[in-house]
Each structure stands twice: as structure tokens, then as C-alpha cells.
Design brief:
Strand content: 15-25%
Radius of gyration: 20 Å
Shape: globular
Oligomer: single chain
Length: 218
């Protein structure tokens, strides 16, 4: 039987944060690709994060940037820009990538490059969701299972479906604004431990008051 908790201080450089259970890892200490940047304590329900980042080659220009404390479920795919084909010609077939065809690589301006893929902090990405190239997902967003995300997602917004559409904001505008100013994920481990009663409270009015107090006393 695995233990849920062990040791006095959470360590972002631990690969397996649940002792005795290997199918969940903190991502950051496992990375080998310098174009993948992931913050502390972000985890995936798998043993190999980089296998979930597809169409990402040594010559790729884009980056995958993920913040802290994100929760990434099994089967999630981050599809990068080199999955794209030339779309401004009469054929999308990539002759230049395949042996024997007389075609030079298209100019960069001819390819639908959409830039870096950026995921904020404390984002929950549900099982088998696909994040398409160049998407920006704001802090605190929730991506529903099996969703295909092809456009940007605002902070603290829930999106579901294919293509993913906004269902609702998680909080009212005041609380969202406070959360984005507070940035709890940038605090020390000790501070975050002390804030857990607030971070896990369902009493939103009380949470607002606490956050305002913390901000005023900075």
C-alpha cells in the first residue's frame, strides 16, 4: 500500500511524490528537452511526460511553457507546431519531408506557425485532452476530459468539448482579480502549507477577505 504523505517538506525535485506509486511524477526533474519549461510541483498521471509532447523535433522553433502546480491527467497531448502542414498552397502534402520528392522546405512565412504553447499556474487538464499549437491557457483554468483546445483560455475559466468552448468562469470577477494578484504559487513551500486552509475552502467570501488581508499586509 502506498503512502499519500511522507517527509516534512515537499520537494519539487522529487520525481515520485507519492511513495510506492510510480504512475504519477513531478514533471520538472524529468525533463531533457531544453524547449520544455515546467514549473515546480506540476505533475502528470504517467511515468514519462515528454512522450505527451508530440511533433516536437530537434529543429523545432517553439517552446512548451507550463507553470507551477498544474495537474495533468493521463492521456493528455501537447501538439506542437511541427504537426502543421503548409495550408496556403493547393496541396497540404509535405513532399519535402519524405525521401525522393523534389521539394525544398517551404519558407517559414508559408507555414502556419502559431508560436509557443503557454500554460499558466494551477491549471487542471483532464484526461485525454489535446492542446493544439500556440494555445495560451490562463492561471487556474480547467480543461475538461477529451477536450481539444485550439484557442486561448482565460484565467479561471472552465472549457470543454471539441473544439473546446467556455462553460463558465470558476469565480466572480472580483475573486479572479484577487487570485491573479495574490499569485499563491509563487510563495515558499512553508507559506503555501500555511495557506492550505484558504486554498481548499469553499467559502468564497471568506477567501476574498483573507486574500485582501494578505495583499494589504505585503
Amino acid at each position: 500500500m502506498f503512502k499519500i504523505k511522507t517527509g516534512p517538506i515537499p520537494n519539487p525535485n522529487t520525481i515520485h511524490p507519492i511513495v510506492g506509486y510510480e504512475k504519477e511524477i513531478y514533471v520538472k526533474p524529468t525533463l531533457t528537452n531544453p524547449n520544455i519549461i515546467v514549473g515546480d510541483f506540476t505533475y502528470i498521471a504517467d511515468t514519462d511526460f515528454e512522450s505527451h509532447v508530440t511533433h516536437f523535433y530537434p529543429w523545432s522553433k517553439d517552446k512548451l511553457i507550463i507553470g507551477k502546480f498544474c495537474q495533468i491527467a493521463e492521456g493528455v497531448e501537447f501538439m506542437m507546431n511541427d504537426a502543421n502542414h503548409q495550408m496556403n498552397a493547393v496541396s497540404t502534402f509535405p513532399f519535402y519531408t519524405l525521401e525522393g520528392w523534389d521539394m525544398e522546405p517551404p519558407k517559414a512565412d508559408d507555414m502556419p506557425f502559431k508560436g509557443d504553447t503557454v500554460i499558466g499556474n494551477d491549471v487542471w487538464i483532464g484526461q485525454n485532452a489535446t492542446i493544439l499549437p500556440g494555445v495560451h491557457i490562463g492561471d487556474g483554468a480547467i480543461i475538461g476530459a477529451n477536450s481539444v483546445v485550439g484557442s486561448n483560455v482565460d484565467p479561471y475559466t472552465i472549457v470543454v468539448g471539441n473544439p473546446a468552448k467556455s462553460v463558465q468562469k470558476r469565480f466572480d470577477d472580483e475573486l479572479i482579480s484577487l487570485m491573479l494578484e495574490w499569485n499563491w504559487w509563487d510563495k515558499t513551500v512553508e507559506e503555501i502549507n500555511s495557506l492550505i486552509p484558504i486554498l481548499t475552502s469553499s467559502d468564497k467570501d471568506a477567501v476574498k477577505k483573507k486574500i485582501i488581508s494578505y495583499i494589504d499586509n505585503k
